């Protein structure tokens, strides 16, 4: 684990350590959901759980641009149009998440 240099007191150091520990232990789960609409074929939606709210908007924006699909952040999860589960893992790793944190179903 890499520690950032912090100027300040013990409280700031403790907050930073807690933040880093949370980030190290966070699990990201990627699942596929089918949304059924009246008299149409179901649309597929890839849902990503476990991205913190403060990072979610940036991650959604980057994923949409990189994959070329629509998406949003709502109800504590990122939703992307289509089955893009295979494309997500390398992009999340590129964004700094560890491979062992990401679970794809």
UniProtKB/TrEMBL annotation:
Molecular function terms from GO: translation initiation factor activity
Gene3D superfamilies reported in the protein's UniProt record: SUI1-like domain (3.30.780.10)
GO terms of biological process kind: formation of translation preinitiation complex; regulation of translation; translation reinitiation
Domain of life: Archaea
Keywords noted in UniProt: Protein biosynthesis, Translation regulation
Residue ranges of domain SUI1 in the record: 28-96
Family: Belongs to the SUI1 family.
Protein's recorded name: Protein translation factor SUI1 homolog
């Amino acid at each position: 684990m890499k520690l950032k240099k912090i100027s300040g007191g013990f409280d700031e150091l403790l907050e930073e350590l807690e933040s880093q520990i949370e980030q190290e232990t966070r699990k990201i789960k990627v699942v596929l959901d089918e949304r059924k609409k009246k008299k149409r074929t179901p649309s597929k939606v890839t849902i990503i759980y476990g991205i913190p709210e403060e990072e979610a908007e940036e991650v959604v924006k980057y994923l949409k641009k990189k994959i070329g699909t629509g998406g949003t952040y709502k109800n504590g999860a990122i939703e992307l149009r289509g089955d893009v589960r295979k494309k997500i893992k390398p992009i999340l790793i590129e964004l700094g998440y560890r491979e062992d944190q990401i679970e794809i179903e």
